[in-house]
Amino acid sequence: MRFFEYLSVLALAAGTANAAAARIAIYPDENFAGTPQQFTTEADGKCWPVAPAYNNRISSFRVTLDPNVWCFFYDSTTCTNELFSVSTNWNNPKLGGANDKISSFKCQ
To answer: Which keywords does the record carry (predicted)?
Structure first.
């Protein structure tokens, strides 16, 4: 009986483990200048529109991802029209062709 109690505790603990996460800071200016909007989110595929003050004004960002997490960035507030995706920690001081186009993102 003890063995099955142990397995039950392990199963319960596994179900409460922290989900994979993404931490994102978006900046209105190149080279991480300006006041950032910051997000910490689970990698659950939820669409996150950026605040209106940042919509189509993002020029640099920092992304910190847990292993096996991808984040996708879009030019609409409903996570359609993908601009690019990242799967590793990324500090990008200039967004090139995506400059001033990001409106939302999701991570999974």
So the answer is: Signal
CB 36 within 8 A of CB 102: no
Alpha carbon dihedral 43, 95, 62, 32, in 10-degree steps, equals -150
List 6's β-bridge partners, or say none.
none
Q: How many helices (H) and strands (E) does the chain have?
A: 1, 8
Neighbours of 87 (CB within 10 A): 13
19-42 as b/e, with b when 16 or more CB fall inside 10 Å? eeebebbbbbeeebebebbebebe
5 falls in which pLDDT band (50, 70, 90)? very low
Q: Are 95 and 61 in contact (CB under 8 A)?
A: yes
Q: Which residue has the tokens 């991480």?
A: 32
Please state the pTM of the whole predicted model.
0.80
Rounded CA-CA distance 25/43 in Å is 16
